[in-house]
Write a structure and sequence with these properties.
The structure is a homodimer. The first copy, chain A, is α+β, with helices and mostly antiparallel strands. Helices cover about 45% and strands about 25% of the residues of chain A. At the A-B interface, helix 1 and helix 3 of A face helix 1 and helix 3 of B. The structure holds a DNA duplex.
DNA sequence: TAATTATGTGTGACAAAGTCACAGACGGCG
DNA sequence: CGCCGTCTGTGACTTTGTCACACATAATTA
C-alpha cells in the first residue's frame, strides 16, 4: 500500500477504551487503522446504543471521510476496543494519494462500497427484522473458532439496537430450544444450522 | 460539471414507476440523475418497506457505486418516482474522470459523505427513536410551502420503517393535540413549532 | 477465608409498537 | 346514482421496550 511508508510520522498509539472522536467534534485527517479495533457507535439520550461498524487492521475510517470531504462534524462516537495504532493522513496528502496512488484509491473506494453495503444491511436489520433474527445473525457474526461468543448480553443488545432484557429473554428462548448454552459473559452455539436458518429469514 | 458533455450518448429516459434496478442484479455503469427522482428502498418478506434515500436532479446514485467498485450486486430496489432522465457513465470513463476531473471527483466524494451522514441519521432514527419522533421528522421533511404533506399513511409508514396502522394511530394522537389536520392522502401541519419540538428529541 | 462490591443475568408488570382482521369512508367513473 | 378501488380507523392480540428489583457470579478486600 503506497499510503503508509516507513518514515511516516503520523502514527499514533492509543490505549484500549480511549475515545478517538465524539459527536460534534472536528477532525484533522483521514484515519487508517494499523492494528487493533475501533468501534463506531451512536448513543441515544436514554443511554441505548447501536454499533454502526468496526474499523479493523488495514481498514480506513469513513467517519473521518465525511468530515474531511464535506467539512462535516463527527456524528458518531469512536472508541478503541483494544490498544490501537492509527495513521493520520492529512487532507492534502489524502488528495494527492487519491489522484496518484491507484492502490490507495481502490482501497478507499472499496471501503466506501463495503460500508454502504453494510449500512443497508444494518438498516434492513433494525427496521425490518425481528429481535430473534437479529440476535441469531449477531451470534453467528461474533462466534469464534470454538463456536463461542464472548460478549455480555448488554454488548449484544447494543449490537442489534435493542435492550439487554430483551436479549436475555430471547437467549433463554434459544436455550430452551437447545440452540445455545448461556454462560456469564459467553454464549456457546450448539445447533449452528438451526441458528443459521433463523438468521436467513428476512423478518 | 465536466462529466456531462452535450454529445454524451449515454442519456436514458424512463417513465414514472419504472424499476431501474432490483436486488441481485448486476449493473452496467455509474448513474447520474439529470431530472426527476428515484427512490431507493428495501422490502422485507412480509411486504414492509423502508426507503433508504432518494436520488434527485444532479445527484449521483451510490447504489451503483458499490456495484461498480466491488463487483457487488444491487442490494436494494430503485424505482423512478416521476419521469426521469439518467446518464450512465461506463466504468472506464468513471475511472478516468475520478483522476482527471477535480469537479467530478469532488461531487462523487461529496455525495458519498452526504449519504453516509444520512445513513447514520437513518440508523439512529429507526434503531433509537420512537414512532412519534420519526413521524414528526418525516412530516417536516415532506412538507411543502403550504405546510401540506402530500402522502398516504402507507407512504409515511415506509418512510419511517413502520406500519400503516401505527402511523394512523400516531397521526390521530397528533390531530387530537391540534398539531395536524388529517385528510385523505394529505396532512396539513398546523402547529409547526410543536412538531419541530417533538422532532428534536432523540428518543 | 469470609465479607464486600461490582458486574452480569432473570423476571414480573406495564407501555409502546407491530400484526391481523375487518369495517367504513372517500373519490373516481360507468 | 351505484360500483369499485384506494385510503383510513379500530379492536384484539403479539412482540418488543422500559422500569424496578431480585439474584448470581466473579473480583476485591478485610
Amino acid at each position: 500500500m503506497g499510503a503508509a511508508n516507513s518514515e511516516n510520522p503520523h502514527i499514533i498509539r492509543v490505549k484500549a477504551g480511549t475515545v478517538l472522536f465524539s459527536p460534534g467534534q472536528e477532525c484533522q485527517g483521514f484515519v487508517k487503522v494499523h492494528s487493533g479495533r475501533i468501534k463506531v457507535f451512536l448513543t441515544a439520550e436514554n443511554g441505548r446504543e447501536i454499533i454502526l461498524y468496526r474499523v479493523e487492521r488495514g481498514d480506513i475510517c469513513l467517519q473521518t471521510f465525511g468530515c474531511l470531504v464535506n467539512q462535516q462534524l463527527y456524528s458518531a462516537e469512536g472508541r478503541a476496543e483494544n490498544d490501537v495504532e492509527i495513521e493520520i493522513i492529512p487532507r492534502p496528502e489524502f488528495n494527492r494519494l487519491i489522484v496518484s496512488d491507484t492502490a490507495f484509491r481502490d482501497q478507499v473506494f472499496s471501503a466506501v462500497a463495503a460500508r454502504f453495503k453494510y449500512f443497508e444491511f444494518l438498516i434492513e436489520t433494525v427496521a425490518l427484522s425481528s429481535v430473534e433474527v437479529r440476535l441469531a445473525r449477531i451470534l453467528l457474526r461474533l462466534m469464534d473458532d470454538n463456536k463461542n461468543v464472548h460478549a455480555t448480553q448488554e454488548m449484544l443488545a447494543s449490537e442489534i439496537g435493542s435492550a439487554r432484557e430483551v436479549v436475555s429473554r430471547q437467549l433463554n428462548v434459544f436455550a430452551a430450544k437447545g440452540l445455545v448454552k448461556i454462560m456469564r459473559g459467553k454464549i456457546l452455539l450448539i445447533a449452528l444450522e438451526k441458528i443459521e436458518k433463523i438468521a436467513k429469514q428476512s423478518v
